[in-house]
Structures are given as structure tokens and as C-alpha cells.
Design brief:
Shape: rod-shaped
Order of helices and strands: HHHHHH
CATH architecture of one domain: Orthogonal Bundle
Number of strands: 0
Number of helices: 6
Largest sheet: none
CATH topology of one domain: Chromosomal Replication Initiator Protein Dnaa, Chain: A
Length: 156
């Protein structure tokens, strides 16, 4: 059953966070969120921007803001550069494929665990709500019976 929930969840999953994408790229290639355009940080950042757009579905404006307030046209240029490198360089293609697989696995694991946490909290809340409701009903019934007994002493 959990597998079905994870498969269903991966179909409708929330997008990967920019921080998760950035962390994966930084762990693999090096820093991405540095000032300036010195290599290799610039390449690393462009890889992260490419993944954020294609895997995370983030807009170029949001990606630019995340990377030290860069303009969306800078993000577009970086994405185009990585797309061109991917077509012409098998090493870049392999790198992107590995990063996509890693991020997809991490996203699926995180989403499945988030989904089960959410369900447990929901069950806990609903159980708590039912317990509270039962207590309220019991209190009202007792109050009603007490009132009725006081109003009509001979019927009880």
C-alpha cells in the first residue's frame, strides 16, 4: 500500500526545492552561490539553474532571485549554455543524468516520508478530534439528563 502511495505521490509530488537542488549540485561540483562569475562556480550555478528549471519547474525569475538576485535573462543564458554543452559533451550529459536521478530519488523518498508524516498527523488529529467530540457529547448528555432529573424528579 505504501508503494502505491509513493507512486501516486511521485506523480503529483511537490516540486523539488531550490535549496535541495543547490545542495546536490554543490555537493557534487562545488559552490554555486558565490558572488561574481569566476569559474567553476559559474558553471556549477548554471548546472543548478538548468536542473531547477527542468527538474524543479521553477521560473527563471525565482531561480535568479535565489542565486543572488540574478536577472532572469542571466538564468536563461545559463540554461541555454548547459543545454548546448549537454548536446555536445557526453560528460556533461552523464553528469546531468546522474544529478537528475539522485534528485528524483531524494525527492521521491522525501515526498513519501512527508506523505506518511502528514497522514499520521491527520489520523492523530482526527482521533483527537473524535475524542474531543465524544467528550463534548457525553458532557451534553450528562448535563441534559441532570437538568431533566432536576426538572422532573419523579421520572428518573
Amino acid at each position: 500500500m505504501a508503494t502505491i502511495a509513493c507512486v501516486t505521490n511521485s506523480i503529483s509530488r511537490r516540486r523539488l526545492s531550490l535549496a535541495a537542488i543547490d545542495a546536490a549540485v554543490s555537493a557534487r561540483l562545488g559552490p554555486t552561490r558565490t558572488l561574481g562569475n569566476a569559474q567553476p562556480a559559474c558553471f556549477n550555478r548554471q548546472v543548478a539553474m538548468y536542473l531547477a528549471r527542468h527538474l524543479g519547474g521553477w521560473s527563471t525569475t525565482v531561480i535568479g532571485r535565489f542565486y543572488n538576485g540574478r536577472d532572469h535573462s542571466t538564468v536563461c543564458y545559463g540554461i541555454q549554455r548547459i543545454e548546448a554543452l549537454r548536446e555536445n559533451d557526453p560528460e556533461v550529459d552523464a553528469l546531468l543524468t546522474e544529478l537528475k536521478q539522485q534528485l528524483s530519488r531524494e525527492g521521491d523518498d522525501a515526498n513519501c516520508s512527508r506523505e506518511s508524516d502528514r497522514k499520521l498527523k491527520s489520523i492523530s488529529r482526527s482521533t483527537q478530534t473524535l475524542d474531543q467530540l465524544a467528550e463534548l457529547v457525553a458532557e451534553r448528555v450528562c448535563a441534559y439528563l441532570e437538568k431533566r432529573r432536576n426538572t422532573h424528579p419523579g421520572e428518573a
